[in-house]
Amino acid sequence: MLPSNVLILGAPGTGKIRICQHVTKDYKADTISSDSHSGVLYDGEFSTKYYKINLNLLVEEYPDSRDLVHDEDEKARKLGEWYEEFRNQEYKELRDVLNGFIFTFDLAKDSIEYLKECLRVVDQIRSQLVDESGEDEWKGFIVIAGVNSAENGKTEAIEDEVLLLGLEFVNISEKGMNEYHERIGIDRLYEIFESHEWEHMDTDVKKGEYEQSKRNKLDEMTKGLLEVSDEEAEVEDPRPAMDLEEVFQRLQIAKDSVKDMNESQRKEYANKVIEEMLDFI
């Protein structure tokens, strides 16, 4: 089975290795150089109850010198240089086999202006991946991952900038669930890996059965919301109930998020929301 590949790019100290360790459950770090994390590879099997894949997590880091990590202008310039190399023909083979891209940054230390420049580069990377795929959208996933905590209002402003591009933001310093029972932080990132439609999967069930299982979940949700018999009303269901108001709240959040997106971004975001609701409701 051919491997699936996810590229993780960020400056030093932005959680790249933490992501690799959480996804692969490989917490050994004794062989990782403290000078640079560029070229670090985590590989192994990633599995759910529906499938398993051979997963490669490829780490790239900029700038080359960690002495420059506090100079945002220099970091932005080095990111631009990295992209110019990445877009060259010699990296075409890598671009062709990518299934995901994660960009990392420091919520506490990095300014919004610096992040805007980074997002501009990420958007260029996405455009190139879309163009070379020959389709309307790239079938891989892109996540903007922050680490540490930011001052009041900064996180929300950053999340707005990310949503304007139709991308997803997670703070990997968080974990657990929010008030809507949705996974957040590093757990949400893991969920993205779980729910992604990988190109090379060894499935425990046939693809048709996998798709049918998702439709069954939707049918069960609908039945639970709209069809309550007298017998069911008298017997307490031991399973946690799905709150209709909660469903509407999630849909409203998604609707509000797409207001400032273009048609292509809205389509991509809507498909993602629908897929996740089928998988995890």
Automatic annotation (TrEMBL):
Q: Which family does it belong to?
A: Belongs to the IRC6 family.
What GO biological process terms are annotated to this protein in UniProt?
vesicle-mediated transport
Outline what the protein does. Answer: Involved in gross chromosomal rearrangements (GCRs) and telomere healing.
Gene Ontology molecular function, alphabetical? protein-macromolecule adaptor activity
Q: Which organism is it from?
A: Hyphopichia burtonii NRRL Y-1933
The organism's taxonomic lineage, starting at the top: Eukaryota, Fungi, Dikarya, Ascomycota, Saccharomycotina
Entries under InterPro entries matching the protein: Irc6 (IPR034627)
What's in the keyword line of the UniProt record? Chromosomal rearrangement
Q: What is this protein called?
A: Increased recombination centers protein 6
Q: Does the record bear Acetylation in its keywords? A: no
